[in-house]
Amino acid sequence: MDAAFSLLVVNFVIAQIFVLAFGVVALKGPSRRSGLGFAVAFAVASLSAVCEALIPLTGHVRFFAIGAFVTLFGGFCLLARSITRHYGLRVPGGVFWLLFVSGVFTDFLIYDLPRGTVVHSVAYQTPFFLTMALSAVAVYRSDRRSAADMTLFSMLSLGAAFFPLKAYVAVAVGAGATASGYLLSKFALVSQGLGAVLIVATGLAMVGVFVKEAIDDAVAKSDIDPLSGIFNRRGFARRVTPRLERANATAAGALILADIDHFKRINDNFGHHVGDIVIQTFARVLREAAPTDAEVARIGGEEFAIYIPAVDSELARECAHNIRGAVSSVSLGQCDNETITASFGVASIFGGDTLERAMQRADTALYAAKAAGRDQVHLAGGSQVLAS
């Protein structure tokens, strides 16, 4: 009894640690809704330990025994709901309510049955198996295959397998004839001990998923230019380089460099706040005018880059010309309705080429376009396309 009670205390303390951990995630992490869901799930489930500890200390055995099931299973349902939502598995909320109500109703029906019978053991453990199995399916069916996600999937799968095993062991070795007898049985000691291990393992796996997401979110933010809202030079290179490595040997694509004409004059005449508006407007036009599979970045003060996969030089030059036209059609009231113009340099990229070499060729073409009078497109190794 003392050992089982001690394990109940340990399980309760562990659950509170995870409540605190997921509460921090909910306040500080990128997955606030999921973090809050996990924190509430562990908080509710931890009440089961309190109910079980009160069974031998009060005369309300049935009340606290059923309360232990309700709180533990309620926590499992909330956990499954949070996991399925976090991993994008669309399960109507009514399914979890139905699962919870049917599980509680079943517990009422089987309460007076001896604890070691097949009917009681299977009926008691099945609802927990279903919630854990559903959670594991949600992780597996997602397209996320990081080490953290696969670890969580493994822990959830082990957790799902644990409950049929508990049913088998309860029948094989006995689990006490009553709720009070359960706490005095060896089965309770083993069940609580293994349960604590699984709680820790699954909780740590969930924390690992959130830590990875926080790191990924920080990396993603470091790749974004805060003014324009598009990739910076680092983010552009991180995304384009792997695409070049996977590209077809004869048609890796094309790189377009764009530079806003007379940007210093805009800053000098109208102020840096207007210059910021020009940068933001230019970035928006690039995003809207570039192909959907292109990567767009601000790589310098007023210099931008566009990578377009699997296009030849003529199509890339035509795309740059269309972007140039879209840019020149934008009028800014802050600049006395002056239009923005830009110069473009285009370079083809072939298999085995590097981003650095393509940048050098496109930069040379861009310099030629600016030297020729600006507001035009120039193809590396080819002729310029004058503004229309």
Structure overview:
- 39% of the residues are buried.
- Helices cover 67% and strands 9% of the residues.
- With 388 residues, it is α+β, with helices and mostly antiparallel strands.
- The longest helix is centred in the middle third of the chain and has 37 residues, at 186-222.
- It has 13 helices and eight strands.
- Strand 2 (295-298) and strand 3 (303-308) form a beta hairpin.
- It is an enzyme of class 2 (transferase).
The arrangement of helices and strands along the chain is HHHHHHHHHEHHEEHEEEHEE
- Biggest sheet overview: 6 strands, mixed
Secondary structure: helix percent:
55-70%
Radius of gyration: 31 Å
Structural class: alpha+beta
Low-confidence stretches: 383-388
Strand order of the largest sheet: 2-3-1-6-7-8
Q: What proportion of the residues form beta strands (DSSP E)?
A: 5-15%
Coarse shape: elongated
Instruction: Count up the helices.
Output: 13
Count of DSSP E strands?
8
Task: Give the overall average pLDDT.
Answer: 86
Alpha-carbon distance between the two ends:
89 Å
Give a topology summary.
Elements: H1 2-28, H2 32-54, H3 61-86, H4 93-110, H5 118-141, H6 147-173, H7 179-184, H8 186-222, H9 233-246, E1 253-260, H10 263-270, H11 272-289, E2 295-298, E3 303-308, H12 313-328, E4 331-332, E5 338-339, E6 342-349, H13 355-371, E7 377-379, E8 384-385
Parallel strand pairs: 6-7
Antiparallel strand pairs: 1-3, 1-6, 2-3, 4-5, 7-8
Helix pairs in contact: 1-2, 1-8, 2-3, 3-4, 3-5, 4-5, 5-6, 6-8, 10-11, 11-12
